[in-house]
Amino acid sequence: MTASAVTAPGGTAGAALSVLPRVLRQALGWADAHRSGFVLPPDVLEPHTQVNSTLKPLGELAQLCTTIRRSTAPDAPEHGTAGDLVMFAWDQVHGGDLLLELLRGEPFAAYPYEIYAAFAGHGLRNEGFERLAGTLATTRGWARTEQQANRELGLLNSERRVGDALHADAGSVLARTWLGGLSEPWMFEGPSGYALTHTVFHITDWCCVPERMPADIDAYLRAWLPPWVDGCLESRQWDLTGELLAVAAALPGPPPTDLLDAAWPALAAAQAPCGAVPETGPTVRADPPGGAGADAEPDTDPDPYPFLACYHSTLVTAFAAALCLRRLTGHRADAAAAVTGAAV
């Protein structure tokens, strides 16, 4: 397979921009209307509590909404909604005190630190947490925690956000990842796909600092994102499609408009009228009485999927839509300025 052998389904110029505002509005609206799904249970600190269904969704809400807020104009409604959701999540962790209790109970665990770093990226701080985390980050055990290379990049980016010294060289860790090694593109499948997307998220601070991406990785991704996205759309892997489109928005230089124009209408078609996007598989059409369809308000439509089956893919869709919308509108403004000589 060559880079030109498979491409995303053909799209028309401007097709992405025609759907992105609605996709972002409805996906973020779904998250806002479903805050109850992110509420932490009273026993969240107990050993039997499942982190993946409690703290993980809340941490992802904080992280992705932090990026959405960074990627939207201050006067945009989505900017305010994303900021409100981050503050909601901060309230759920009691201003960081709950994360401090987690860190005291599990000083060997990285996840409380990484969740805290999502809030630190929004400017929210807890002095007690940072004092303890700063001590733990100097230990031999912290520097030698055994984990996959892309996960270690996540911890390094968290250390950068919190302000602690990096425990390892990020370039050396990147070289050990599937993406950093420029693996054979035909070896791409689900686990390697998620590994590469998170590698990009961590080296670019969740797609907000594209200039951190090395040139060889940029060229590799520009060549192979189109067939990978095409394959994900064909197999209806909506969550991974959204993550790959976020990666496309994190490429330095001009955005890959052909890819975005081809892929976004297909992902938009998978979005339910309420704003939810399933992780994988067939989409469910649950239009409210009267057939309001895509123009319905996200908080009035029935839910076609259980919360845990769609919250992540819906947040990822909003995250990717905000990033792509920013890149495409900024690129269009830059192009106009280049033609007219006007200042942007």
Largest sheet: none
Total DSSP helices: 14
Report the count of strand segments: 0
Helix content: 55-70%
Mean residue pLDDT:
90
> Residue ranges: pLDDT <50 for 5 or more in a row?
1-9, 287-299, 335-344
Rg estimate, integer Å? 20 Å
- Sheet/helix structural class: mainly alpha
- Approximately how much beta-strand content do the residues carry? under 5%
**Morphology call:** globular
Order of helices and strands: HHHHHHHHHHHHHH
N- to C-terminal distance: 41 Å
Write up this protein.
By secondary structure, this protein is mostly helical. The chain contains 14 helices and no strands. Helix 4 runs antiparallel to helix 5 and helix 11 runs antiparallel to helix 12. The radius of gyration is 20 Å and the shape is globular. The N terminus and C terminus are likely disordered.
Main attributes of the structure:
58% helix, 14 helices, 344 residues, disordered N terminus, mainly alpha
What's the short story on this structure?
With 344 residues, the chain is mostly helical. Helices cover 58% and strands 0% of the residues.
What is the secondary structure topology, with strand pairs?
Layout: H1 15-33, H2 55-71, H3 77-92, H4 97-105, H5 111-120, H6 127-136, H7 140-143, H8 149-162, H9 170-175, H10 190-203, H11 215-234, H12 238-249, H13 257-270, H14 307-340
